Amino acid sequence: MKYRNSGVCLLIVAAALIFLAFGCRSGKGNLKGLKMVKLETTKGAIVIEVNETAAPVTAANFLQYVKDGFYDGTIFHRVKPSFMIQGGGFTPDMKQKTTRPPIVNEAKNGLKNKRGTIAMARLSDPNSATSQFFINDVDNVFLNFGDPRSVDAFGYCVFGQVVEGMEVVDAIDKVKTGIKEMYQDVPVEPVIIKSAKVVSKK
Shortest CA distance to 158 belongs to which of 148, 170, 173, 144? Predict the structure, then answer.
């Protein structure tokens, strides 16, 4: 009888620990249940599903910038037709915003730079990504980690997928671009991210 009671007690304790573990995890900002980010742009809305499992550091970094309102009022400052649209770092007058420190490159996560995916922009240093991101207009295999056609051995980290608004991405892809300040491929008419917000899944 004592053995049976101790077994029941152990089961109760185990159940309580599991409840606490999952309860604490789910209550941490509710980001696990809110993995969708909506970019309201002057060309329309783009909804992105952020993959926190495959790219935890990159996803957390992006979501923090979103929560901080960092992207609000920034532009897609680099548009390369049939390649990608890049944003997340410049204001309409081409002033670069101050960012947090760079993050580690998680390109070795199995996600590919396919049409509709979102990835981090970076410099030649593989671990130099901060706030800027790009959305692939086409399959860009030469940006993938480990692909023999890649521009370098480190690749560009994919951390999400457009689930609504690819027609908006395509519209941005077609805008007229030119040179502004020292920068090339800048839309002549600014494409502004009016707001970036974490939203619930439908």
Answer: 144
